């Protein structure tokens, strides 16, 4: 498994049947492909749909049915569409069970920065601030470092997305859970040592006596 | 009851410097003929309130590309490098607003509310210049309503009176914006006799649609 596949696969294990799930653009989108057998979730897209699915055939694309990146999608039976106010009512109102987002940095407090790099990249926050403020569970799916530079840091130097602590961080090296006591190393990836994770992490990690290897249910 | 108007005449009624709300999300649900007319008539110095600026050559991206936009209130410009360049060069002033907050500010504008209070953005850059208030032990930002001179909305179907129905993810900001502007111009993919759209299917009632853009004759 390459890094992205591993991360997406591990995040997919977090889904429970019946969850309403929003997947961010990029890596998080891959999560849909790795849902364990028997797990049925609904995917919401902030541009106004519950029940999005992969486009079954390129010839079926429709300008009026896209994901939040503007790419053509399909929809499942029972899908429903709504306006942007309703869509974010779902997100802020406690109706969205899980959001999976990419990250630029997460810090020791479990705070996420994922929407701008001042002076370099100012794309806008889109729906990210609402998603982190409002979703019941926030999972950050990201590579552990950016070309060797740790992304799990003592304190975010980049502008924060929200002041809400995220619930889980999944990287190609580890699963880390932000808690009241700090960041706890919950799992390590196959063929990765605790030392390697610590080496690639700037933030202090709490390492329990035994740290199991990531488990994947097919 | 909406007046039927050509796309050219509808856009001709928009002065340079106007504040426009434009529906759409990455181009889906953005009125294509009205956008093309704004470009053709070279309307300048526009303030645009919209979710995003799509991509170069797509939807609102065309207005940016043509250099018609001087101010933008939006949630996302990351997919349009031209918008980012014009922002960095100082040609466009960009106010970035969290997407859910943008929707609620437009809704507040159209629904007669003095603003909205939201937890989104508390403790971030988005809180700058905003009043914060504590209610029942939680902190919120006070976000003010948005209004526009014109709303350009896109529907899947309109009837002859201007009752609007939308399609899938092309709905997005359209019904909110149709409530929040002094003059509402609707462009529909098809226009059908009154009664074809069942009352329960109508999302935007005709009373808020001032102008319905006429279809142009096509040969088959």
UniProtKB/TrEMBL annotation, chain A:
The lineage of its organism: Bacteria, Pseudomonadati, Pseudomonadota, Alphaproteobacteria, Hyphomicrobiales. It comes from the Bacteria. It holds the Pfam family CoA_trans. This is Acetate CoA/acetoacetate CoA-transferase beta subunit. Belongs to the 3-oxoacid CoA-transferase subunit B family. It comes from Breoghania corrubedonensis. The keyword Transferase applies. Keywords: Transferase. Gene3D superfamilies: Glutaconate Coenzyme A-transferase. GO terms for molecular function: CoA-transferase activity. InterPro entries: 3-oxoacid_CoA-transf_B, CoA_trans_fam_I, CoA_transf_AS, NagB/RpiA_transferase-like.
From TrEMBL, chain B:
Transmembrane segments: none annotated. The keyword Transferase applies. It comes from the Bacteria. Keywords: Transferase. GO terms for molecular function: CoA-transferase activity. InterPro entries: 3-oxoacid_CoA-transf_A (IPR012792), CoA_trans_fam_I (IPR004165), CoA_transf_BS (IPR004163), NagB/RpiA_transferase-like (IPR037171). Belongs to the 3-oxoacid CoA-transferase subunit A family. This is Acetate CoA/acetoacetate CoA-transferase alpha subunit.
